[in-house]
Amino acid sequence: MKNELREFYISRINFGVWNPAQIKQMAAVKVVTPELYDKEGYPVDGGLMDTRMGVVDPGLRCKTCGGRMNECPGHFGYMPLARPVINVLFVNEIYSLLRSTCRNCGRILLDNESLKKYEAELKRVEEEGGIEERLATLSKIISEIKHISKCPHCGTKQDKIKLEKPYTFLINGRRMNSVEIRSWLERIPDSDLKFFGLNPETSRPEWLVLTIFPIPPVTVRPSITLENGEKSEDDLTHKLVDVVRINQRLFENINAGAPEIIVEDLWDLLQYHIATFYNNNLPKLPIARHRSGVPLKTLVDRISSKEGRIRHNLLGKRTNFSARTVISPDPLIEPDEVGVPYEVAMKLTVPQRVTEWNIEYLKEFIKRGPKKYPGANYLIRPDGKKKKITEETKEALLEEIQPGYIVERHLLDGDVVLFNRQPSLHRLSMMAHRVRVLDGLTFRLNPAVCRPYNADFDGDEMNLHVPQTEEARLEAETLMLIPHQMISPRDGLTIIGAIQDAISGCYLLTKRLTKIPKKDAVDLLVNAEVFDIKDVLKKEYVSGKEVFSVLLPKDFDYVGKTKDKDEPELVIKKGKIIKGVMDKANLGQGAGLLLRAFSKKYGAEETLRFMGRVIRLGIAVLMKYGFSIYVSDTDLPEEAKNKIKALLEEAKKDSEELIEKYRKGELEPYPGRTVEETLELLLLNRLNQVRNDAEDVVKETISLEKNNTLLLALSGARGSLLNLIQISSFVGQQALRGKRIDRGYHGRSLSCFEKGDLSPEARGFIKNGFKQGLKPHEFFYAAMTGRDSLMDTALRTPKSGYLYRRLSNALTDLIVRPDGSIRNASGTIVQFSYGGDGIDVAKSFAGSIDVDGIITSVLEGETHD
Amino acid sequence: MANLDVSKHFLSFKHEKVGKKELDALIKKYDISVWDLPKILITDPAIKDMGLKPGDVVKIYRKCPYRGPSIYYRVVVRE
């Protein structure tokens, strides 16, 4: 092999049909016998396994090119057919041609004038809409031509041609044989072929009827030697044996002057075998089978359908250097890391090129071998030979190694890998992480990155891929690393942020803990891996806000909102929290405005480090001070109970009044609604409102100081006030399809109510809370809506998934060109600027560009991303 | 109702025929043929009374409450 690299470009590809001369010319063998092997087991000359068509046995050499197995690409053979046979794959083309040309002179059934007119139209259509449009128009024209009954050129009357699937042509009800069809096609002049879009140089129509049959190389139909030494042939070979055998029989019968019926029968059989050789799923044709009854897999089966070459092997490629296992959480690793088990790290490898400078370093890996971490599994010589490193080969390989070799070493901390969870619905479903090799058997990930993957830890598995080249690694690092993906391309907000315990911990710290002994503060910060802690060492006691401030850079200013009602404003000046608390609005996912501002000022990388510290601090707080929720958290004070009772009374009274008004016929309908619909709307609104009123009561009466459940809801860590109310006081109105519950019996929801009862209780209002317990009818309402929403999700998920798949497949190859336009794969313009305004949302601030802010910061000499 | 002129409705955008000079500049800027532009039917109510022929290009002044005004081009096609 010469190390000469030459570059070629494919300028065009020409598709056409083989002609008999070409088939004969490229063939290496004329196949004359259906036999495969002789008595000694060697391939027969002129048989279907002839070694001139290539070899699949390790010992043999190809007689055409001299190559051994895997060297010889295979060579075609040919076989002259005793009678011509139609190629089934082209019956439709033949049908079109027969119907639109004259059976006598072969000319197209159009006078010169209309031919010119149609040609002009085809040309125009192609210019405007491309080749697809032209083909559509052409088939429309052909279906018009078939009604012409007299040839405008020679005046011959045209007979009706019918195609009887799969390959029988009838003229006036009489069967045409392939010789007839072929000679008809031969008569069509070259000049008329252009109209049909055929190039006479490469695709004469008579070539669609085979006279010489090409026999594919042995390499595309390799035989398998079973363990007992018996040979098992490929399906294609089986089919070819049939074809060759019948062809031989046909030859013999013709030469012997057999009666026409016998010849016709054999000809038909030959046509059948050749048809099923191409396609074994033809309608109205019996499927060719093995002796066992299994259908033979012939050419079309190899390409089409889910198990075919395209969807299985080309679109469904599988990869090496990948791993899959269960995931579990680990808030102590950074959000852009992934915990990898030793088992995996010792199987997956990174190829590293040996140089003068790292040879000693890499030798250490080889010395440790494949069984001791961190070792190496393979050594690749400059000539591409791969050597497995084992205890036995180790010493020899250490002697041999020199610059230019490649060591496949184990995965190390800091290697960049791709991490993915299916379904891969958006680009954030596959991100690059840095490896952290850990004990255990699961992949570990920081809970902060669960959201983009939509992962949880109830048994989810994820995949990991190791890039193998510098280019792949660089691409992963610069495009896919977590810091680059932190801001969502959907809304320009951080999609990665603190969740659950991290939020409640920080909230607790900045809200409730106002007096922390110095010692505790140091503990917390060290737990969060923050060591620059001189700020908290000055006083004997520090506040939680001061502790949190240690994480903030000294030059960070921020003003924002919080969800807290006592301190609705968060003010940070010079890296100190002046007022406000840390909650979901600042740290959370998809909200995290503090994080967004932070990343604008300090960059994504720094934000991620900050986030890691915040999460660890929050968790450290919870671990140090403990955090429990109690059933008693849902005990409302007497005062609140009375208030809520009053609210319910009031709502009931209002509803009764509305119903009364409706009964008297005094209710004014809304525009476009009936009186009944209006009443239902008003009632539903009134009854839903009680929940909101009750939330306010709870917020006012329960003290946050003592109620941890409320703290969870208010900080945004988990749960809502609604959940709290549904447990403590009442569940509220149940709705089905946007209406109060009105189904079940005729005119009533349950048999315990009277017909036409419109009162809240009879129409799905639940006035008891989960803790008190529900009345039987109330429980039934809850079960109704519960079942409805369960069915809804179960039915909606696959439907919306399929819709999304189609949408994303339709849009996959849209790209932004350097000129700003959005183009599809064929280069036509879809949009003139991305989204109409040319803004990349992921680089914007919540969807727009803050021009004033940029001007101010430039004037002040600040940097920004 | 039957004779409603859609192009006069306040929600329909202003459509305008693109002159030769501007069209040449557009073609050159994007390095395309006119048929690579997005299409509009000659029978489209917004342009049907403008007396256009296939191959003409219309300029559309779009307005959007979220992302502001933008300009779009379409080539007139027969079907």
Structure described in brief:
Helices cover 39% and strands 14% of the residues of chain A.
What does this structure look like?
The complex is a heterodimer of chains A (865) and B (79). Chain A has 865 residues and is α+β, with helices and mostly antiparallel strands. Among the domains of chain A are: 88-212, no CATH class; 322-485, Barwin-like endoglucanases (Beta Barrel); 501-625, Enzyme I, Chain A, domain 2; 636-777, RNA polymerase Rpb1 funnel domain (Topoisomerase I, Chain A, domain 4), CATH 1.10.132.30; 815-859, no CATH class. Chain A is 39% helix and 14% strand. Chain A is built from 27 helices and 30 strands. Chain A has a six-stranded mixed beta barrel with strand order 9-17-10-16-15-18. A four-stranded antiparallel sheet of chain A has the order 11-14-12-13, covered by helices on one side. In chain A, strand 29 and strand 30 (829-831) form a beta hairpin. Chain B is of the alpha+beta class. Chain B has a single domain, classed as RPB5-like RNA polymerase subunit (Eukaryotic RPB6 RNA polymerase subunit, Alpha-Beta Complex), CATH 3.90.940. Chain B is 14% helix and 27% strand. Chain B has one helix and four strands; from the N terminus they run E-H-E-E-E. Chain B has one helix at residues 20-30, and strands at 14-17, 39-41, 57-62, 70-77. In chain B, strand 3 (57-62) and strand 4 form a beta hairpin. The radius of gyration of chain B is 13 Å and the shape is globular. Classes of the chains: A alpha+beta (865), B alpha+beta (79). At the A-B interface, helix 3 and strand 30 of A face strand 4 of B.
